[in-house]
Amino acid sequence: MKINKKRIRNPKRYLAEFKENEELRVGIKITEENKRKVIEMGFDSKIVIGEIIVPNSSISKSTYENAEGKCIIRKDLPKEIAERYWEWSWEDWGHNVHSDYKYIPYERYPREYLPPKALEFMIVEDNSKNKWIASRKIKNSQENYEDIKLLINMILSIFGECEIVNINMEEPIKTVKSVKWEILRSGRQTKERIRNIIREKVSQNRVSMYIRNIDKLIENSDENIAVGTQEFKGYIVFICGKYAILESLMPNNATYILDKNWEEISKLTKTEVLNNKLHIDRIYHYLNWEEKINKYMKGDEKYGKNKE
């Protein structure tokens, strides 16, 4: 079944030719014409059979939802008090530039944050030696409709077309280990590299706040720093004493405090990290962020339990 649309609402109508619980894949054949988009999606330019990725979150609303999760505004609940960061600057009579910032409280409806699904795509080859971008096998069942819909909409948002195929294509020859973190050594170049990531990811009025936060974490980090890729893009990990501090540059996300057992945690998807409550604490970017972070950078023993 071939689909040529911007997005779909209900996948059921596109699955009529598949039996109940029949396994299928969502994907698109790779051509010279769409190869550039394949690379933008996050795949290596060599198009390696077996490579597995979570699509780049910055491509579309669908890829963002898949990699970063979804925010639902709960208008059915009473309003709550939240804080908005605001920064400004001015010039005095002597042409000296000053700046200040504050957190402004305001009322809003509560937000419910759904965790990312982190659905993956891989490079596979069919019996005719054509290369495809394809999802993992998924059963045609009502309980999988939301995942199938998201898979289809991700491909449509990238390529403008999509195919739903059966599994009569060859399995990947090999699986390439998905590298989700790039390790950077401490130093001046790393500091500037991270500042550039902040400027790229963060809205202009919050850049200074994040640079202050990151500089503080860099100063107190006693080991190498890890910068996220794929579904962890926009996350930076600092090792401070016995804790790993996972700082997010994405809107509405928080700073997570993890156990120092970083090698094992880094093998998991972001969904597994959050859903399995492997974090010790979650700190939102409000006025008391620095005060709470300080307790972990000092290795305070009483802050060792999961606060969820």
Topology, element by element:
Elements: E1 2-3, E2 23-29, H1 35-41, E3 52-53, H2 61-68, E4 70-73, E5 80-91, E6 97-108, E7 111-114, E8 121-125, E9 131-135, E10 138-139, H3 145-159, E11 162-165, E12 181-184, H4 188-201, H5 207-220, E13 225-228, E14 235-240, E15 243-248, E16 255-259, H6 262-265, H7 270-275, E17 279-283, H8 289-297
Antiparallel strand pairs: 1-11, 2-9, 2-10, 2-11, 3-8, 4-7, 5-6, 8-9, 12-13, 13-14, 14-15, 15-16, 16-17
Helix pairs in contact: 2-3, 4-5
In words, what does this structure look like?
With 308 residues, this protein is of the alpha+beta class. It is 25% helix and 29% strand. The protein contains 8 helices and 17 strands. The strands form 4 sheets. Strands 1, 2, 3, 8, 9, 10 and 11 form a 7-stranded antiparallel beta sheet that branches. It has a 6-stranded antiparallel beta sheet with strand order 12-13-14-15-16-17, with helices on one face. Helix 2 packs across helix 3 (145-159) and helix 4 packs antiparallel against helix 5 (207-220). The two termini are 44 Å apart.
